[in-house]
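Notes from the pairing session

We agreed to fold both candidates in a single pass and log them together. This is the raw record for the first candidate, unedited. Please don't reformat it; downstream parsing expects exactly this layout.

Candidate A
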Amino acid sequence: MAPAAAKWEAGVVLTEHPHLSQVVPSALAALGVGGFADTLGFGEASRVCVLLIDGLGWELLKAHPGDAPVLNELRSSQLRVGYPSTTAAGLAAIGTGLSSGEHGMVGYTFEVPGAGVMNALRWCSHDDGGDLRGSLPPEQVQPLPTTFATAAAAGVHTSVVSEAKFADSALTHAVQRGARYRGVHALGDLAARTLDALAEPRSFCYSYHSQLDFLGHVYGPGSSAWRMQLRQVDRLVESIVEELPPGALLAVVADHGMVRIGEKLDLDETPELLAGVRAIGGETRARHVYAEDGAAADVLAAWREVLGERAWVYSREEAIEGGLFGPSVSDRVRPRIGDVVAAARDSFGMVRELAEAVESSLIGQHGSLTTAEQLVPLAVASAR
């Protein structure tokens, strides 16, 4: 029997909370697009915006009510983001309406058979930084129809409002193709472009803000810098809510929460964890471990022995059977999952000081199964 991979530390079953992947299908159902169910109870709307604040965990939001009074006053509930709790997987959940076992963005970095370990945000080789767009076209790595393309085909005015530098990125093509991209540079034009998009009749707009996550990584979640940014995010939400056109609905969500790292273990300085290992992917809080042929069982035993109670450690089969990557995992995606999957508990970090120098230095991290990383808000406002 597989371990209870679908449970987190507090004993709460993951599936008791709606999944982030349900947000856009519910939004499109509210707009009357056929084939989608409004599982989140949005009701009918003529215009919908999903605003994703990168890194805004439910626990962090509720711990700082004075810095986000508008967000805390909106009608809100909890969503779970699934595993791994990282941006590539979260954006793909929004863009496909599916879990990571189907859309295939199973980590910040993960192995694609025949191509090595890729960085999904930068679309480059994790080993040497080489551009992989030619050898791994976005439409092949994530070939499923996007929610944006489906909405546009149904006659919905569909927009993505996000940073201008991401307009032609490979990840944008992988999970957001089909929408009109409206590039922005700061909070002001993010609000203005979002409202412009909602001025269209029967419109769906997805808007994205990244800087709260960035400051959480650099200074730590809950730090003074992070809280000041949260105040700006709250003002952004207020600006949009104040100008919502009649019939519009705004749903504010996030792709993951964040924890402040305490104890670290340098994987590359721990020989017991390298024996039989040909590649390591994932990130500090959520690791994929790819074993040499015939070594998977020994690698699993070694990682369990060394990490002990500091991490949940599963074989690929246990992780899939336990539902970590969603209710189903496609044959296309299965090889991308490590032979061993290690998810950090508490504030533990599995770093690689030399191979991942920048990532290993960050104070705030995410990716694992704790409630701080998994639970995010679904805050809703409407103009009737």
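Candidate B (folded immediately after A)
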Amino acid sequence: MYAGLILLGIHDRCSPGLNSMVSSWSALLSSFEEVHQVLCDHGLTLDIKVIRKLTYRYAERARAEQQAGRIPLGDNDSLEGRRVVISTDGGRTRLREKKRGPKTKKGRTRFHGAWREPKLLIIYVVDANGKQEKSFAPFIDGCFNGPDSVFRLLKAYLETLGIQKADKILFVADGAHWIWNRVPILISELGLTSECVYELLDFYHAVEHLGKVAGLRKSWSSKERKSWVSKQRGLLLKGKSAEVVKAVQLICRGRNSKAIKTERDYFVRNEQRLAFPTVKALNLPIGSGAIESSIRRVINLRLKGPCTFWYRENAEKVIMLRSYYKSGRWNYLKQMANSHNSLAVA
């Protein structure tokens, strides 16, 4: 009988409409307690534990469909002939990890509240003027299982979207090793040609690091530091990245400080990703503001807070729900969660 109910879209003794409503409010609001209050205001009395269960099971079914490659697409989701921007970054969330030892006096299990970094990705399309296309809802998703997992997730989305048919593809991010060490591998696995793919360091992160370099010159005045940063910033925009790297090396030369070496290596390592004039001339973004904004909206405003600790698996489920909600793709997530293929998950 349960199998028959699932074929009708009824999971956990709830209709598809109620499941979707509870899960969407759990993604939108800042806590399950708020969801409980809103439901009560609408005449629906559900215990907080039930709300959590419905939300997590909803996300499980949707994730199972996504992992099976059954990602629903809209009529305007084809990337053929389009200009695609891809970015990824990490956030900060405190996870509840079990701690060895006896339980507390109240019988509760002790735990560590360590900070962990969930990885998030975004795929969006820009028009000929470099503005984000409103007709294409971005794809946002993330996980906690490390860089390899988020790149596998990214690869799955790009293959589903047919990234090989895109006109221009831009990978833009900050200078994190875990990102740029894996981008060339992803490009190779997807069979993309170098003529249409661009790798770019986020311009504003680069300028921030220039400020750190200038700050290492203790003998300079504040005015001299600002003047030096302004000059190097202009050189970056003009495409004279080699001169910037030389200027950075000149300042850092002869020093063994770890901080100085880190800043010097940052520009030397990413010299090939400083082609800002080339990318700007194509009307493609030179900053990774889209992923920075996604980190704030998806993770910081929901998973981050005073005395807030998450189990890893539950945090990942909320990340998926909130990602689809904030990107305007909730209806597609509903299709995945209510699919008949989710029978195995139920």
